[in-house]
Amino acid sequence: MNGLGLPVRLALTPGQAADVTQAGTLIEGVPFEVVIADKGYDSQAVVDAVEAGGGEAVIPTQKNRKVQRDIDRERYRDRNLVERFWSRMKHYRRVATRYEKTARNFLAIIHVASIMLLLR
């Protein structure tokens, strides 16, 4: 998401795949100053990739970590833009119920719904 809550890149994964596995794909080649993510993206590799790209990682650490990272809580509040985007996306019935059988078609429907939100 950009600072306005609009998608920059979307990736589709199997339901059993962890979110953190796609972090590199999502930030690769995208200019950014700050990357805000939830605890599902808590990985030193992700933080290192963000910092290597010249950005700040605002990703809270999981409770079971021995070393807890300090994050900017004010900036972390902006993560709700992602939650609001997906809430608006689920207003489109085909996205919410996943009628599409193939991943390719479902990702296409997600792109179409994203375009509809961008045009508003």
Structure overview:
The protein contains 6 helices and 2 strands, in the order H-E-H-E-H-H-H-H. By secondary structure, it is mainly alpha-helical. It has one domain. It has a two-stranded parallel sheet with strand order 1-2. Helix 2 (about 45-50) links the parallel strand 1 (about 35) and strand 2. The longest helix has 17 residues, at about 105-120. It is globular and about 45 Å long. The two termini are about 15 Å apart.
Query: Strand share of the residues?
Result: 5-15%
Order of helices and strands: HEHEHHHH
**How many helices in DSSP terms?**
6
Largest sheet: 2 strands, parallel
Helix content: 40-55%
Low-pLDDT segments = none
Rg computed from alpha carbons, rounded to a whole number of angstroms: 15 Å
Number of strands: 2
The count of domains is 1
Shape: globular
What's the structural blueprint in terms of helices and strands?
Elements: H1 23-27, E1 34-36, H2 44-52, E2 56-58, H3 73-76, H4 80-89, H5 93-97, H6 103-119
Parallel strand pairs: 1-2
Brief synopsis:
With 120 residues, the chain is mainly α. It is built from 6 helices and 2 strands.
List keywords for this structure.
mainly alpha; globular
